Amino acid sequence: MKDYPAIPRDISWLSFNHRVLQEAKDESLPLFERLKFLAIYSSNLDEFFRVRMANHRNLLRVNKKTKRELDISPKQTVRTIQRIVNRQQEEFSRIFEKKLIPQLARHGIFLKRRLDMTEEDQEYVRNYFREFMLPYVQPVLLIKDMVRPFLNNAQLYLSIHMKDKEKGKTAYAIVKIPSDHLPRFIELPSTDGEHNLIMLDDIVRHSVSWMFPGYEIQDTYSIKLTRDAELYIDDEFSGDLLAKIKASLNRRHVGPASRFVYDRTMPDHLREYLQDTFELDRFDILTEGRYHNNFDFFSFPTFGMTKLLNPPQPPLAYPALQEAEDYWAAIRAQDHLLVYPYHQYESVVLFFERAAEDPLVSHIKIVQYRVARKSRIMQALMKAVALGKQVSVFIEVKARFDEEANLRWGEKLEEAGVHVHYSFPGVKVHSKLALVRRVENGEEQIYNYLSTGNFHEDTAKVYSDFGLFTADERLTSEVARIFSFLENVMIPEQPFRHLLVGQFNLRGGLEDLIDFEIAEATAGRPAAMTLKMNSLQDKPMIDRLYAASAAGVRINLIIRGICVLVPGRKGYSDNIHGVSIVDRYLEHARVFHFHHAGEERVYLSSADFMTRNLSHRVETTFPVYDEEIKDRILEILDIQLADNVKARLLSDQQGNTYYRGGSDLRIRSQKETYHLIKRSLVAEQQELEAGE
User: Fold this and answer.
1) Which residues are catalytic?
2) Crossing angle for the helix pair 376-386 and 403-416, nearest 10 degrees?
3) What's the pLDDT score for residue 403?
4) What count of Cα atoms within 13 Å lies in the side-chain half-sphere of residue 141?
5) Confidence of residue 68 (pLDDT cuts 50, 70, 90)
6) CB-hemisphere CA count at 13 Å for 342?
7) Does 463 carry a binding-site annotation?
């Protein structure tokens, strides 16, 4: 299809982030959780401007001929994005100021502003400023035609409108708000049962007159500049790629502006002066509320008020591995599926700790894309080397915003004696794979862990993912071939027959699976698929899904983020139903289910249907062969499709309307999934006890 209905990628992403903002508006959620969703929204938007909006800003600068070759108008795209973001920021301010601040007050938490302070508060603020803040505020008088001060990336500043006391002339200045050194929320003197807070911004506001004694302060307005986060490596295929990445990281914090935000109450004369001083154009600047960097709400003090947080939902142990007398025998006996964050991540950590200590283990291999700052897995790998194991780690240094952390881990692992392999030029390695080789009775036995999520002990507590432990030779032999490719950059001699691997057979294999459903529907036989992923953007895949819908294939989509495809459009996607679930945990798993003439083929994957995943990354999509595990995954998919509490309908209207169909009962899929797994563990324990 040439002209299929499509939602622009970045507009769809903004719609996803609006779903996050909707959670902050949801009065059924505990109060502190709603504040947390404000933080998530703000953090997401900051990254969007540092990456995607920076790219659009660069397109504005290209020549006319190049612009004519683009599928989109950069200027129109930037204007549309700014219009949507401004509208969302106004909603953000209403939620915070009209809904959340009054509710905090009802619980005895008062967020004071400068004019609300008592004499006691003011004395406390004066002392706090002099004792803790004075070395960091860096006041700068702005003088026209002088060297302009440098604004640090994502750093908060106050811009100040003043008048010279002697000459009466207007003057301007900026002062740093030192949130990079001090907590954003400061507790003021409080009476019993009350908690008075003030934001660091307002302490600086209260103190500016002391910094500019020769001036009369007219007013202050917050500002922030976000810088382009792209590394801009001109040529990845020549020279030392690792050295180029390190050099680019050093330049990231001084890159060009991608967004300048300011308090929407700022007068035009000050905005224009700042725009001229910092050489910004109209496409750089956006309005926000009184405060910026609202991702600092992650650190909002809770004062021990657990009733204003989500009720505890402790991850469940997986006794079949965690309590196994012989960990490796348990994996040989059967495949094991873990579902995070409902299951504890301990089974994965044990995979490496047991391997490190086991005298029969000779090799351990892992792909590292993102990893926890403090990681038992990485410690186990270093211990394994000390105990004589051959340990190989492939580190993807181009994992955006984790580049420096991955470089540090790489250096630390190398110092310990681990064989470290780094990024390929031109592609990213995004597979989530681990391999352990044991020599049992003189023969090689391979064990694998394959996952939809990273080897990250922290995000495993909040990201919803699947992980599969297996000793199935159909999979282990092919995973071993992937590691050989990563380590030696040699094309495997044998084709992949079970795994779908990026750069080899991933795109073609998925296309074949979709085409099979199209052929079945065309022949009048049942045909269906359910695709769960983070993002759907790739044009050839969307073409195929529209063709499948036209042929009569029933398609369910569960897409957390970007969805360029338009579900339910008459004549194009009549048979496609799409939902997005935003809830307590971040839906991160990729699952592809095809009816396949009743065979019910189920795949788990590290890849989304994005061009970057299917064409420019080493991804791994792996089949589920165990029938019980397959049934469990399909059961979880059915629960998500029945969600009528946190699911939003995907459509070209971008309205994020809640799905209220299905059962008359409230079905909240993440809660239902937790209890499904808990029931199954109880049933397994009862069966075990009955057998004894």
Assistant:
1) 430
2) 20
3) 86
4) 13
5) low
6) 22
7) yes
Best CA proximity match to 103, nearest among 260, 306, 308:
308
**Is 148 labelled a binding residue?**
no
Helices (H) and strands (E) in the chain, counts: 21, 27
Helix (H) or strand (E) holding 558: strand 554-559
**DSSP reduced 3-state for 276:** helix
How is 33-102 classified by DSSP, letter by letter? HHHHHHHHHHHHHHHHIIIIIHHHHHHHTS-HHHHHHSSS-HHHHHHHHHHHHHHHHHHHHHIIIIIIHH
Does the annotation place 588 within a ligand binding site? Answer: yes
Check whether 668 is labelled as a binding-site residue.
no
Q: pLDDT tens digit string along 74-133?
A: 788 888 999 999 999 999 999 999 999 999 999 999 999 988 899 999 999 999 999 999
Q: Cα 498–338–685 angle (5° rounding)?
A: 125
- The two tokens of residue 643 are 């969600």
Segment 142-200, tens digit of pLDDT: 998 777 889 998 999 999 999 999 999 999 999 999 999 999 999 999 888 899 999 99
How far is residue 397's CA from residue 395's CA, in Å, rounded to a whole number?
6
Question: Taking the complete model, does pTM exceed 0.85, yes or no?
Answer: yes
Tokens standing for 563? Answer: 């969805």
Q: Give the integer Cα–Cα distance in Å for 82 and 673.
A: 38
| Cα–Cα dist 413/409, whole Å | 6
560 marked ligand binding residue: yes
291 in a labelled binding site: no
SS3 331: helix
560-609 pLDDT tens trace: 999 999 999 998 999 999 999 999 999 999 999 999 999 999 999 999 99
